[in-house]
Design brief:
Spore Coat Polysaccharide Biosynthesis Protein SpsA, Chain A, 3 domains, eleven-stranded mixed β-sheet, 26 strands, EC 2.4.-.-
Length: about 650
Amino acid sequence: MTQIDELNCPFRREIRGEGDDEYATCDFLHRLTDAPRELCNVHRSACELCVQHPPLSPSALNPVLPSLILDVCANAFPDASPDTVGGVLQSWAKSAVATDGVGMLATTNHGCDCVLICEGQHAESDLRIAIDSALAQERVQAIVHVIANGADSFAVADAFRNRPNIRVHRHPQRTSAWQCLHAVLEHLETQWVALLVPGLQNMADRLCHAIDQMETEGGEIFAAAIRRSTETGIETLASTEDNPQLGTLVIRRGTLADLGGWHLTRPIQLSPKPAIVEKGADAGSAELWSVDTKTLRKLMPPPSTQQTADFVSRKALAAGNAPDFVSRKALAAGNAPDLVSRKALAAGNAPLPADSALLLTIAGHAQEKSPDPFFADVVLPFRNALDQVAQSLDALLAQTGADVVIHLVDDWSSDDVSGLFDRYRDHPNIRFYRNRENLGPFASFNNIALRAETGFIAVQDADDISLPHRIARSVQLLLQTGADMIGSRSELFGEVDLVPLVAHDCETDQHGVTRYYRNSRYPKRHLSGYFLENPTLVMRVDTFRSLGGYGDFGGGPRNRTGVDTDFQLRAHFARAAITVTRDALVRYRVHGQSATQHSESGFGSQANAESHAEVRRRFERYCTGTFDPRWFGALGQHAGLTERIDP
């Protein structure tokens, strides 16, 4: 009979001490892997952690076992092929470790806008191949936008007009492919955009594979290989950062808007992160890109004022400092005139081949449109530090292109706030409140969200400064992309010894001045951390309310740390549409009394550890099935503790 010790694990065998350490042979690992028993030794600390979790099952994943299995298989079967037991177990264990020990049980369906540019030379049969294979995608509801580029393409495009999930758009005069794409941006209906090419058949898993990869890794641009038959066999045309196969591109809608949209004409660089490369008989190779403005390698060439460049910016054209003509050799294969007017090129009137035109930058073909006025509520809770509050207020009142309603909330300050209130009391766009007790910024925000006067609401920390275009730019992108919330980059300032420690990156300008930044980014599927910079957050009011608002971790310092991380994760797993801009829209003050640095709530504190344990617990609930996000929010929980006052 097997003797079970105090850990109550039936698989612990041959328990023995080695110095101050205790080891046991794990009979479960031995039976599962068929590895020699001497390779299945486990330290007591791993056993203690293992028995705290349920065993492997279809509905639960013990977070310790994958690491143990991976270690045993690596030692017992170092050269195992993928079709052997050892190879299968190693592959599964690597995947489980990468997902941070959390099983993803829910299969996700996606929506994707597919853009197909139709020109006069295209046959209806070629369009049908691309359209039918897009509409037949697995786990993706495809909406196909057929863009008839030129009057000679109207007839062939109209053949698809009355089919479900197909939208036909007409452009009487032929224009560049990027201008076609931008003209349809305002008609897109999902957060993903895929390019279709006439005559190119899409594999059934093309879109779900691309979107799954980008959601897993937080990527923004996906390209894959094209396989085609030749007289000598099957030829694979791989995608690289310099030469993507355009018919395989899938791009986040938010990335398109942020990089060019309708208003920007700045240079853009699209570059690869450490690439995810898949090699297989079916997949060929695939690349996953994110936008990196620091690297010089480019997926798409940016506008430039250099004499030797193939493209120039509109600003350079307007300034008259660009040559009148530019060589097209880099754009076309020689079937077009050697020279084309830069004016015609910038206007989109040059008849470029579709593939060459697609390599023009998004920014170079941004559509000029007059922005509508933007309105938003801004919530500014504060406790003491009145000089910093005044700076934040002044920056909000100086917003350009936006009309803001500022909700100024005194969160039980010990300082006399009457002077601050008197200074701003006559401003028509400021509402004044006082909390009956110290609630903290998140509960204060919840209470004001119930009183919002516009369709959008922004976070404003009392010690930070919004740059003049913050609200207009954020609301503009939310409207352009149909997203529910947006985060931006923030520029750090404050205590010089702390700033580099909390920065994500830095940039040094030509004068030797170094600036430090923190960046919002798209979430990665399996990671339980913070991905949007909360001080930059702007949301739709309806979205915030439907998510139940920020949560409550039990009051006190625990409600000042981790609550924003939980809210972001909840939004992500509730399928809220999240977008990101690389513009720095907020100046973030770094100092020892901030929530992340304070001894009571900052890194290393007891409150921080307890709050992040709660974040982890909730994360495991969010990613293993469907849920109502309001169960985890605290909207309205403290509503009676914030009262509006007339100073």
